[in-house]
Structures are given as structure tokens and as C-alpha cells.
Amino acid sequence: MSLPVKTLVQAAANSGLRAVSVRHSSQAPKVALLGAAGGIGQPLGLLLKQDPLVAHLALYDVVNTPGVAADLSHIDSNAKVTAHTGPKELYAAVENADVIVIPAGVPRKPGMTRDDLFNTNAGIVRDLAAVIAKASPKALIAIITNPVNSTVPIASEVLKKAGVYDPKRVFGVTTLDVVRSQAFVAELKGHDASKTVVPVVGGHAGITIIPLLSQVTPSTKFSEEEIAKLTPRIQDAGTEVVNAKAGAGSATLSMALAGARFANALVRGIKGQKNVQCAYVASDAVKGVEYFSTPVELGPNGVEKILGVGKVSAFEQKLIDASVPELNKNIAKGVAFVKGN
Ligand code: NAD
Ligand code: LMR
């Protein structure tokens, strides 16, 4: 299993925004960005506006959308930009969207966990998902809003309630964990960062973030000491940024890059260009947990194949085992939130 996954992941690394391969089909994808005026939303909008595969970029936020849209619409790329502000304009923003990217919600401040964001962000994701269920039930939904381990189950439960849930179409965006891992490994080992591939599995918080250093491409040897240092650095990288920003928010620029790379991968999949990305999805890859991030093959219907964790080291297996109860707690909290409302 590990070899084909590596090969596919390698192919993925050579695509996406690293080298956008433009093979236009008859489809003209619409991407809706919810939370478009925020710290992530604005640079992510900029990158999506420059993506030659995006035909229509619909920007939605509860404030400031017209200004962001006016600004982006002056860029000489082909994507049409529309602005949608406030709940009354949400339906039009997401209607007929092929891909919906959601960075709407509050970020962490120093001292907070991602789960501390649950009380504010759970309701935001629930309400957005309820409108998506009506206006655009076939869209691929990429959720950035934290806590991702819970917001993906929340959106899924809302779609289930509405009778339109398709587990192949709902994604938690964990691409930033992959991007960081690739940056840190390349720096440590002197690799070309643009050709370094590191799968990251599990979820998107603390111990649930599991870099598979045994599967790095190009094949790379790490000492036990290196693994013992690198693994927690990757797991705590979000906190590193939160602390460095000292109250001004969390990762926005690296997240925008990661979100644009993932959205581009979804669009390429829709256009028939199958590719592999790590993402947190409904999955049977690991026993005893309903959602798990692994490399998945993306295609016209979203998740075409779950590729699983592949061959992992004993150290990585221990991390996977330890992540399961934590993920189950996060997932149950999200499910209970929707069931109780
Ligand atoms: P931000 O506060 O700068 O921006 C959030 C935006 O969401 C604001 O423009 C706000 O108006 C908007 N918003 C609030 N409620 C909304 C609603 N109901 N509908 C639409 N828009 C709404 O925050 P940010 O730095 O952009 O972070 C956004 C989220 O992304 C946070 O939850 C953060 O934790 C998360 N995040 C996730 C990852 C990841 O890897 N998945 C990485 C970084 C940040
Ligand atoms: C990240 O990993 O940077 C994000 O999840 C934001 C955070 O709160 O750390």
C-alpha cells in the first residue's frame, strides 16, 4: 500500500499551485469563499482569483465583502468576482458552486486550544451548512474553520438532517499540516522544498496531527532524536504562529496558500484530473473512528478512493492509536451539537 500512495502523493506534489497544469474542460468552476473578508479569506481570495481554473469566485462574509470584491475584481485574471454580504445573500453566493471553501469564524489567541473556539464557530458552520444543503447540495465543501475535528462532523450532520449528505463531498482542510511538514523537513534535510512530500494523517489539533516521517519523498532517514523533535514541532506549529502573532490571530498567509492549493486540487478533480491530497474525511481507514485524515484520491465526485495510512512505523502506529479516542471526543461533540439543536 505504501508505495502506490507515495507515488500518487509525489504526483500531487508536482501539481496544484506548485505547477498548475491547465487543461480546460467544458466545465467553468464556481468557487464560493465564505469568510472572504477575514485574515485567511483575503489572501485566499487573492490566490483563487489568480487560479486559471476558477471561472467564478463568489465572496461571502458578514462584513466588508464589497471592498474585498472590488479590490480583487481589478486583477487581470479571468475569474469573475461577485460580492455577497450577510445571511440574505448567502444563498446566491453558494448556489451552483462546485467548490465551497469555509474559513468563516474566529481564530485562537495565545493560551487557547482549537476546541476553545467551538462555542463560537460550531454555530457559524452549522448555519452555513444549512444554506449549502438547500442551495448547493452537490458542491464539494472544504472546511478550514476550527476546530476542524468537530466542524466537519457538524457540517456532515446538518447535511444528513437535510437528506443530502454525501461523505465524498465534505472535507476538513489539513493541507497546512502537510505544507508545514514539507517546509520543516526540507529545511532540516536540505531538500528542495517544492519536491518534498510528507503525508500527514489523523486530524487537525495537537496529538491528532500525525506526520508520517517514514513515508517522506524523497526517501529520507531520520534519527530517533530528529523524529522526537520534529513530530511535536509539526503538531504545535499552529500554536507557534498564534504565540508569535501575540493576540493578532493565527496562521493566515500559510493557510491561504494551503487552502488555495487544496481548492485547486478539488477543482482539478472535478475536471477529471485525479490527484491525491491528505484531507480529514468520513473514512474507514482506521478502526474505531468515523473521520480520519489520510491521503485520498480526488476526482469528479470528490473523494474517489481513500488510500489509507499505508505502511507506518511502530512510533507512528502508537500516535495513530492515541489519536483515536481524542478524535472520537471531538467528533461526538460536533454530532451532539447538531443533534441537540
Ligand atoms: P478572521 O477573524 O481574521 O476572519 C474570519 C472571518 O469570518 C471574518 O471576516 C468574519 O467576518 C467572518 N465571519 C464570521 N462569522 C461569519 C459568518 N457567520 N459567515 C461568514 N463569515 C463570517 O479569522 P481567520 O484568521 O481568517 O481564521 C478563520 C478560521 O480559520 C478560524 O477558525 C481559524 O482557527 C481557522 N484556521 C484553520 C486552519 C486550518 O489549518 N484548518 C488554519 C488557520 C486558521
Ligand atoms: C493552524 O494550524 O495554524 C490553525 O489551526 C490555527 C490555529 O489555531 O493554530
From TrEMBL:
It is an enzyme of class 1 (oxidoreductase). NAD(+) binds at residues 35-41, 61, 121, 144-146, 255. It catalyses: (S)-malate + NAD(+) = oxaloacetate + NADH + H(+). The keyword NAD applies. GO terms for biological process: malate metabolic process; tricarboxylic acid cycle. Residues 30-172 form the Lactate/malate dehydrogenase N-terminal domain. Residues 174-338 form the Lactate/malate dehydrogenase C-terminal domain. Keywords: NAD, Oxidoreductase, Tricarboxylic acid cycle. One of its GO terms (molecular function) is L-malate dehydrogenase (NAD+) activity. The active site is at residue 204. SUPFAM superfamilies: LDH C-terminal domain-like (SSF56327), NAD(P)-binding Rossmann-fold domains (SSF51735). Gene3D superfamilies: Lactate dehydrogenase/glycoside hydrolase, family 4, C-terminal (3.90.110.10), NAD(P)-binding Rossmann-like Domain (3.40.50.720). This is Malate dehydrogenase. It comes from Caenorhabditis remanei (Caenorhabditis vulgaris).
